[in-house]
Known about the structure:
By secondary structure, this protein is mainly alpha-helical. The protein has 8 helices and no strands.
Amino acid sequence: MQVLCDALAKAVPGGFILLFVDEGRPMAHLLSKAEALRRMPDSIGKLLAVWKAEEHKSEAPSYPSLPAQSLIEPLSRREVEVLQLIAQGLSNQEISERLVLALETVKGHNKKIFGKLQVQRRTEAVARARQLGLL
């Protein structure tokens, strides 16, 4: 525990937080123990908060992002989800069942996707999305 606290005392003031965060759960466990012993509570609290945020990010589903200039208005997360299901060949009804949405909501998402991608058909939307790196 003392070695950990000595390392923290040297690293945290210099902003070397990710060195500890990147070590994952075992480091988080050690930091929690040190926090319980009231060793450097400010630094450890900061590290644990960063670790929790990083863990939350890694658990969240990832959605492709577009370069800012690719589309005038970027697709929402839900629109990307719908687009991915379109690319898998699902019908509007199947998409509505999969995402637990009303059929009219799925059709509305389709319309927005088509407008943002400047296409007329599902196949064109998939092709354009691939071209933009969305799929």
